[in-house]
Specification:
Length: 120
Amino acid sequence: MTPRDRQPAARPRGSYADFYRVVAQIPVGRVATYGQVATLADRPGAARQVGYALAALPAGSDVPWHRVVNARGEISARAGTTPFARIQRDLLLSEGVVFDANHRIDLETYRWESSVENSK
DNA sequence: ATGCTGACTATGT
DNA sequence: TACATAGCCAGCA
């Protein structure tokens, strides 16, 4: 390689598209945690980025962002109060996901069990 | 290129 | 159970 081959300062690992691809595979009536999505996107430990990726989604996106919840089975709202949490809950309810008295989803029951053989 | 921001999670006190 | 801390990384100004 020539001394001047260009290489962006930091290797662009991927993009939000990688996370969207994983989220898009969550079946109806199932949910996944942020950490789970990160791991499936081949970026274990990057749970935060998953949340940011979803926050950056344009309205009307095909990505089922509402099927992603935090590690406690709760809905994580964006900074500040937003109507998104309620929308997310309604969407999940319409898919048959049940919330307990604590407003949490039983991950043991609804967590999506991905087969690592997805896509690719 | 640099610095700041932000839907998280795991661990320790 | 609650709070603090560290690690994580793509956008955007």
